[in-house]
User: Which sequence fits this backbone?
């Protein structure tokens, strides 16, 4: 495997003023990372139950997922759908619809798309400090940007923890709330 990675890192530290009784200053850093797989000899690497892929032309460990195309609004819409994922009899209004990207009347792994990746493109931090007569106060902040995640457990299955729905809602516009017992998400 060969990959191209470009990284830019910047940092600064400004000590500020120091005197016999006071001191203050700021510091910070930022880095930018981009990577693309240049060659896998035409192959690919699947990981994490086939939700991560390493493929030529894409970042390492990109997400490999079905593309959502809204929610089923009614049973009639499910019954008249040209293509569905899985068993049509188990679908209910409020379940996700997936795009048939290959136009082959089957929704399978060939319909998955590559989106985002697990490596942050931007990492940053900054801080301030001040002191007076031997007392000091410091604050540090850090974060990342342009990073993606694959929702699991309670993020993906809202009632995974055993909670239930307490009231009936309006007509279906969003995902169906379901309870899954003993889910290994």
Assistant:
């Amino acid at each position: 495997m060969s990959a191209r990675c470009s990284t830019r890192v910047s940092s600064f530290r400004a000590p500020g003023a120091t005197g016999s009784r006071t001191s203050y200053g700021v510091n910070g850093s930022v880095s930018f990372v981009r990577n693309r797989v240049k060659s896998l000899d035409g192959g690919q690497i699947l990981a994490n139950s086939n939700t991560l892929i390493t493929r030529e032309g894409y970042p390492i460990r990109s997400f490999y997922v079905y593309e959502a195309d809204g929610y089923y609004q009614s049973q009639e819409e499910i019954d008249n759908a040209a293509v569905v994922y899985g068993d049509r009899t188990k679908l209910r209004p409020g379940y996700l619809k997936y795009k048939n990207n290959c136009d082959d009347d089957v929704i399978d792994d060939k319909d998955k798309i590559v989106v985002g990746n697990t490596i942050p493109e931007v990492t940053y931090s900054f801080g301030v400090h001040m002191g007076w007569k031997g007392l000091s106060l410091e604050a540090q902040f850090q974060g990342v940007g342009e990073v993606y995640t694959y929702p699991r457990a309670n993020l993906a299955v809202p009632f995974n923890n055993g909670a239930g729905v307490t009231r009936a809602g309006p007509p279906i516009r969003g995902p169906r709330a379901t309870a899954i017992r003993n889910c290994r998400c």
